[in-house]
Amino acid sequence: MMRRLLLYTFLGLGAFFMLWPFLWMITTSFKTLHEATAGGLQLFPATWQWGNIRETFEAAPFKRYFFNSFLVAGLVTLAVLITSLMAGYAFARLRFRGREVIFLLVLATMMVPFEVILIPNFVLIGWLGWYNSYPALIVPWCANAFSIFLMRQAFMGIPQDYFDAARVDGCGHLRFLVKIGAPLVKPMAVTVALFAFLGSYNALLWPLIVTTDEAMRVVQVGIISFYGDAGVQVNLLMCASTIVILPTVGIYFLAQRYLIESPLRAGIKG
User: Fold this and answer.
1) Are 181 and 158 in contact (CB under 8 A)?
2) Which residues, in sequence order, are bridge partners of residue 228?
3) Rounded distance between C-alpha atoms, residue 89 and residue 177, angstroms
4) pTM of the shown model
5) Which CATH architecture has domain 59-266?
6) In whole angstroms, how far apart are CA 206 and each of 209, 218, 243?
């Protein structure tokens, strides 16, 4: 009994310290600027400033920012799903010369830091004339090695009998992938989609350098609006951060069941 009590106490403290920054962010969103910058241990505002939400949306065109973010993140997620499903299936079930070598090369790209490819990608975007456009925000991230790796492992976890039975019935590779393979790896596909969406939605550096037009900005870049020569509007900055984080929290809870099922049903198998 004492052992369990100590365990729950330890887990509770860990959860508290993890949630504290988020709780502070939310409560600071409804403070005055003086309260937000005063410091101290006061968590809750003396008077809740609900007008901060309106001021936040008036300080920058966040409606446009959210539209851009959801459009870019949605298209990137769809593209990553398609490319990872097709590439993962090919590496798992198709037999062709150099398959293992190509797969190793794909995995090797995971070792390359983003900063290394930043300048070449930026130069390429300039050559293509995509600066300040949606293709610049979307196309470079339509495939990634980690998603391909996850889908390959998921397809390799499907028993060979499924493929043999489908082949006997005259099912080709594409039909098997769409009708049988994709539904069987649905938990892993949802995980891939979740990672792709969050990675694109939370991106800051790349959208910052490939866009200068206000109409092409995304929400993460829009948060910078609260930094100025006169200082940081901490209360509005926290309010904007709270608003921006809400979609990701909601999507996580919606996809949580599949995220938990992924390692249990699809697994990482070789």
Assistant:
1) yes
2) 231
3) 7
4) 0.84
5) Orthogonal Bundle (1.10)
6) 5, 11, 21
Euclidean distance between CA atoms 64 and 17, whole angstroms = 34
Domain with CATH 1.10.3720.10 in the chain: 59-266
Report the chain (270 residues): mean pLDDT per 10 consecutive residues.
85 89 88 80 81 84 90 95 93 87 91 87 92 93 92 88 82 84 87 91 90 88 72 82 87 74 48
The residue among 164, 150, 140 whose CA lies nearest residue 192 is 150
d(CA 53, CA 242) in angstroms, rounded, equals 10
Q: What angle do CA 126, 127, 130 make, to 5 degrees?
A: 50
Q: Where are the alpha helices (DSSP H) in 131-215?
A: 134-138, 145-156, 160-168, 173-176, 182-184, 186-201, 205-210
Alpha-carbon distances of 22 from 34, 114, 187, 239, 249, rounded to whole Å: 20, 28, 28, 11, 12
